[in-house]
What we know:
Layout: H1 8-20, H2 23-30, H3 34-48, E1 53-55, E2 60-62, H4 64-94, E3 97-102, H5 104-109, H6 111-121, E4 126-131, H7 134-143, E5 148-151, E6 161-175, E7 195-199, H8 204-216, E8 221-226, H9 229-237, E9 243-246, E10 258-262, E11 269-276, H10 284-298
Parallel strand pairs: 3-4, 3-5, 7-8
Antiparallel strand pairs: 1-2, 5-11, 6-9, 6-10, 6-11
Amino acid sequence: MLTMNCELLDLRALIAVSDGRSFHRAAQQLNLSQPALSRRIQKLEQVIGTRLIERSTRSVRLTPAGQQVVPLIRRVLDEIDGSLVGLMAQGERQAGRITLASVPSATVRFLPQVLQRFAEDYRNTRVRILDRSASECAEAVRTGEAEFGLSLPVAVDSDLSYTPLHDDPYGLICRKDDPLATMPDVSWADLVGKRLVTIHRASGNRTTLEAGLAAAGITLTWFYEVTRLTSALALVDAGLGPSVLPRLACEGPEARDLVWRPLGEPVIARTIGLLKRPAAPISPAAARLVTLLTAAWATA
C-alpha cells in the first residue's frame, strides 16, 4: 500500500507557488524562506514520484503532472479547511454559559421546550435562569449579571431596552368545585364582594391589575395577600378563595387541579417582553436563544 508521507504545509506550498507563479511571493505568503519552500516542493515531488514545478530564471510553471495534481490538492485543502472551520464554530457554539433573568411564570410556559430546541445546536452551553421579580430582572440585566431578561415592563432608562413579546390576560383562577368554575361566562361583576387571594402591592402583576381595574371603575376585595404567585395558587387550592392571575402563571404544575377562566370586558393584560442592555451586545449563543424565545412567544 502506498503511503503519502507529506505534510499539509507541503501541499500549501505547491498551491502557493502555482497561484503566485513565484517562489518569492509564495515564500512570503507562507512565511517561509525560499530555500525552505524549495525543500517542501522537492519533498512533495519525491512523494508523488515526478516533477511538479518547472523553474527557470524568469518563470515558474506547472509541469503536466503538476497541472493534474494541483486541482486535486486544492480540493483536499478546501475540504480540510472547511471541516476545521466548522469544528471551530461548533466548539464555540457548544461551550460556555448563558445567564438570563425571568419572571417565574414566563419560564413555566415557554422555556422548557425552547431550551430543548436550543440544546440541539448548543449541546454544551449551560443555561442559568434567575427566577426573579420584574424589578429584580431589570437589575440583573442592568448590572450584567444576566445577558437578557424576560420580564414585565419596567421604567426603562438609557441602560436598558424593552421589546414587548406577548400580552398575557388576567383571569379567574379557582377550584373545580367553585360555582364560578361552571358558569357559562364569568365577568368582573361576578367577583365583586368575594374574598379574593392576591399578590402584594409591590408586585408588577398587582400594579398592572390594579391600574386596569381603576380605569374601569371596578373595586374588588383582596382578603388574602401573599408575596409569590405560587403561594396564591396554594391558597386557592386550599379553598380560601379564588384569585385573579395572569394566564401564564396558571399553566404550571401548581395549578393542575385548578380552573382558569377568562374575564370579559374590560380585558386586562400584562405584557411580557425582552430586556437587554443596548450598550452590551449579547453572545451568539444568547442571541440564538432570544430568537427561539421570540418565535415561541409569537405563536402563543
